[in-house]
Design a protein that fits this description.
Structural class: mainly alpha
Radius of gyration: 15 Å
Distance between the termini: 33 Å
Number of helices: 3
Strand content: 5-15%
Order of helices and strands: HHHEE
Largest sheet: 2 strands, parallel
Length: 78
């Protein structure tokens, strides 16, 4: 059985092999068409870092309130 650390490393290495822009666009299309997104007013999200999916285009939707975690100078959530 793999540890959490090993699984995270695997996922991170796998993401590096993907065209992250293309994958992000496809996933966002699915997400934006989902009923749960359409009916939501407040959405907790993240700002992408490194090879994480780029979800920033959703921030253009002015009909929603987006909430991001507050980070300190050590990249820790506060």
């Amino acid at each position: 059985m793999q540890t959490k650390t090993e699984l995270r490393k695997f996922a991170k290495d796998f993401r590096k092999t993907l065209n992250i822009q293309e994958v992000s666009e496809k996933i966002l299309q699915i997400f934006l068409s989902a009923d749960i997104y359409k009916s939501a007013q407040n959405i907790a999200c993240y700002y992408p870092y490194g090879t994480e999916l780029n979800i920033t285009p959703i921030f253009k939707d002015t009909s929603k309130n987006f909430y991001l975690p507050k980070m300190n100078k050590n990249d820790e959530m506060t």
